Inverse folding.
């Protein structure tokens, strides 16, 4: 393959990014339709849902017209989609204020927690995978592989409770709930202390999955001739693994890691509820309890959009590392 | 063979070489995986115990004795302790399996049939029908599984049915994708053209020719999902969606144990371990099946 001039390569990349972006548009549109229909297609009327069973029929009718539910579906969709796109997320019945003022702080808190567990699961998962994959069938490899199979079967919500019992209630090393200390909230250290247990809870299963897949990717890569060449020219084993092994396993690794993003977003719901982390997961839980349909809808939409965006970024970074993908 | 030794036709000459059936080959390959065999045995024991709950369970899972509530492990007669209301934890774990296990397996089975059918239609007809179907699946795929299932279950309300529907819907997206790829690999093959040439109906081609050939991939993928679903379905009960107290269910038991975590950690620990062991067994069996059913891996061994 001839090496294209830098400008041409940049153009090629830009073309790939643009084309990949165009592919996400119909999915994005579909997601908004599903979120819109979710509230309407399911048994029971949204007004009934908000007011609860046994509400006054006149009250229900009033709420229906207030919410525009007496208009045809496609009109409702256009109005709803237009509002949502311009940041008007509707009105929260639970808090009696606009949904947007409720949701943005929660979104930020969830991103902080998800980022923490993402870093944790990637660092540990890749390290374990590289360690095990460069010495297959050794004692260390077998122990770690067995451990990862067990870890992948542990229920996250149960692990969270166990961690809370041990490290917060029994040993008292870490706080059990919240995001900052209530009496003296103190910066990043305080945040990290509160984040440790929920982040470990969320990261457990993705770490296990990442380590297993990185292990097999490394085993595959380390069999290539260029690894033997690198060793033959006297390169330190550490550099052989990092420069020639891991770098060539990187595109696969990035694909694996980003596939876990959906799991991180989902797993964070359980961890947020158990550790009372003020994010979208615990908000979703409380909104379900309060039958706050507008908030439930927006949370569903935002997690899906975040997920799509993460996959988009993953594909783009993968294509930068492995130009062959762009040509496919 | 010497001529004239026997009469005109030697039947053995025309007998086909002995070919082991698919089941035998699979079983033999599966047997090589020690962990998968152990997991299958453990799971069988669990299923027998759970099925025989009325006989083996030492106490009534709903009978509460507040005077001995939250007594710990090793309490006389109640070896796994008592919960926050004074109910026997061991009995509740055994009875709980009757709810938790079927509720994890059933959605996978239903989704397997549905996704296979969808993939056959989409894969065989292709064109507009196939494209529309698969784009709908793409959209479902864009939602994080847990979030979608929680929201659907929440809107559907309480009960077994709502969990079943919610979990089946979220399973459809990944399973249909796997099934669709498997079906597409078959549609271009000569035997499909041959079937069409002799005038087989589309229905016959789909279910007699395409389905059996693409089913193993779907089965392998499904078997890796059951373990996840054991954890996930119990998670929905943990959140208070679907099943309601006082039902003896593993997820609900963990959630009830959460209330007394500080004073009686065993109440949440025991059912959690039950979920973990069941999930681990299913995961190991799934791994074993994957290797046993994958001819590329199987033939090397």
């Amino acid at each position: 393959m001839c090496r294209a001039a830098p400008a041409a390569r940049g153009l090629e990349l830009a073309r790939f990014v643009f084309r990949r972006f165009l592919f996400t548009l119909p999915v994005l549109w579909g997601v908004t339709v599903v979120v819109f229909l979710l509230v309407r297609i399911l048994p029971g009327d949204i007004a009934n849902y908000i007011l609860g069973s046994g509400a006054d029929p006149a009250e229900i009718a009033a709420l229906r017209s207030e919410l525009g539910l007496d208009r045809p579906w496609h009109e409702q969709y256009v109005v709803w989609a237009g509002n949502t796109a311009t940041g008007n997320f509707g009105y929260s019945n639970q808090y009696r204020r606009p949904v947007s003022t409720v949701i943005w702080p929660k979104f930020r808190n969830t991103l902080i927690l998800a980022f923490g567990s993402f870093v944790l699961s990637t660092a540990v998962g890749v390290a374990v995978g590289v360690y095990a994959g460069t010495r297959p069938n050794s004692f260390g490899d077998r122990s770690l592989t067995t451990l990862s199979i067990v870890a992948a079967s542990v229920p996250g919500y149960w692990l969270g409770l166990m961690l809370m019992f041990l490290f917060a209630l029994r040993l008292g090393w870490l706080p059990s709930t919240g995001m900052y200390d209530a009496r003296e909230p103190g910066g990043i250290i305080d945040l990290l202390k509160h984040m440790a247990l929920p982040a470990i809870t969320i990261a457990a299963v993705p770490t296990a999955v990442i380590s297993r897949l990185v292990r097999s990717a490394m085993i595959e890569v380390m069999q290539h001739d260029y690894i033997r060449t690198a060793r033959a020219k006297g390169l330190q084993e550490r550099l052989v693994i990092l420069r020639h092994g891991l770098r060539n396993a990187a595109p696969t690794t990035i694909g694996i890691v980003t596939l876990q993003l959906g799991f991180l977003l989902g797993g964070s719901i359980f961890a947020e509820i158990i550790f009372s982390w003020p994010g979208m997961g615990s908000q979703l839980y409380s909104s379900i309890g309060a039958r706050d349909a507008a908030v439930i809808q927006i949370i569903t939409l935002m997690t899906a959009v975040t997920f799509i965006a993460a996959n988009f970024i993953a594909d783009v970074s993968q294509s930068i590392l492995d130009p062959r993908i762009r040509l496919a | 063979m010497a001529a004239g030794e026997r009469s005109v036709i030697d039947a053995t000459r025309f007998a086909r070489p002995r070919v082991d059936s698919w089941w035998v080959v699979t079983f033999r390959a599966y047997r090589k995986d020690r962990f998968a065999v152990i997991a299958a045995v453990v799971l069988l024991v669990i299923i027998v115990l759970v099925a025989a709950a009325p006989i083996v369970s030492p106490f009534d899972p709903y009978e509460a004795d507040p005077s001995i509530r939250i007594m710990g492990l090793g309490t006389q007669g109640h070896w796994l302790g008592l919960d926050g209301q004074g109910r026997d934890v061991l009995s509740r774990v055994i009875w709980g399996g009757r709810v938790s296990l079927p509720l994890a397996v059933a959605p996978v089975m239903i989704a397997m049939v549905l996704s296979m059918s969808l993939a056959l239609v989409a894969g065989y007809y292709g064109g507009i029908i196939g494209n529309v179907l698969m784009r709908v699946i793409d959209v479902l795929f864009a939602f994080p599984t847990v979030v979608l299932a929680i929201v659907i279950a929440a809107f559907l309300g309480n009960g077994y049915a709502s969990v079943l529907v919610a979990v089946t819907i979220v399973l459809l997206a990944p399973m249909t994708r796997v099934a669709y790829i498997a079906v597409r690999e078959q549609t271009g093959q000569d035997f499909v053209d041959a079937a069409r040439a002799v005038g087989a109906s589309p229905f016959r081609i789909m279910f007699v020719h395409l389905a059996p050939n693409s089913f193993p991939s779907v089965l392998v993928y499904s078997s890796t999902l059951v373990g996840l679903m054991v954890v996930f379905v119990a998670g929905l009960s943990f959140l208070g969606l679907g099943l309601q107290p006082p039902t003896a269910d593993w997820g609900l038991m963990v959630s009830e144990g959460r209330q007394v975590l500080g004073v009686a950690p065993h109440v949440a620990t025991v059912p959690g371990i039950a979920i973990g062991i069941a999930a681990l067994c299913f995961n190991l069996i799934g791994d074993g099946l994957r290797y046993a059913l994958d001819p590329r891996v199987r033939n090397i061994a």
Summary: Chain A has a mean pLDDT of 82.
